[in-house]
Amino acid sequence: xxxxxxxxxxxxxxxxxxxxxxxxxxxxxxxxxxxxxxxxxxxxxxxxxxxxxxxxxxxxxxxxxxxxxxxxxxxxxxxxxxxxxxxxxxxxxxxxxxxxxxxxxxxxxxxxxxxx
Amino acid sequence: xxxxxxxxxxxxxxxxxxxxxxxxxxxxxxxxxxxxxxxxxxxxxxxxxxxxxxxxxxxxxxxxxxxxxxxxxxxxxxxxxxxxxxxxxxxxxxxxxxxxxxxxxxxxxxxxxxxxx
Lengths: 116, 117
What we know:
The complex is a heterodimer of chains A (116) and B (117).
Chain A lengths: L2 E3 L4 E5 L4 E3 L2 E3 L5 E8 L6 E7 L6 E3 L2 E6 L4 E6 L8 E9 L8 E2 L3 E6 L1
Parallel strand pairs in A: 2-12
Antiparallel strand pairs in A: 1-4, 3-9, 5-6, 5-10, 7-8, 8-9, 10-11, 10-12
Chain B lengths: L2 E5 L2 E4 L5 E8 L5 E7 L5 E9 L2 E4 L6 E6 L2 E6 L8 E8 L12 E2 L3 E5 L1
Parallel strand pairs in B: 2-11
Antiparallel strand pairs in B: 1-3, 3-8, 4-5, 4-9, 5-6, 7-8, 9-10, 9-11
């Protein structure tokens, strides 16, 4: 069975601190995609990144970086020099490439609170 | 560019009343469409998805149904709401399979917050 675990329910940091959000996934498929979404207080899920299972290169986008390690089935997300606007719930998700319809399997989310 | 619209944004309904939530997508053709529910506690659960007009797949047996009367319109319905139907409902779209399996980023609407009292 496929599963995504985000063990950190809530994280609170002070502005400018670095913070890492953990994501561990389970799947027997060799081909799959991993995603991160941000859900600000307004509720809409905002797409952040997609990574396929064959590409283990880490990615950096501004203050955001992602560390994909297939050996440990982890896809962690780091925010450098956090800002108040980063406060949101962050979801990690898994999708099998041959899954009819493209169902996303979400983790339970991590609520990040960045205090000034 | 593509946009997704969901309405209403907020809805308060009595138990036993009907429900109709609508979602439309602009700027693309033959998208895959999805309905998710986010209950208290944040978990997102896929309810229905559709890969074409009139084609609906249900992920979880429940009190709700979905329909896709037009290519870019997806409707979530119920004949009689239950208290347990309360939650935040999100519609999403992605490029259909004809666009390539790799094109599978799901883009979400702003959601509908439903309270059943």
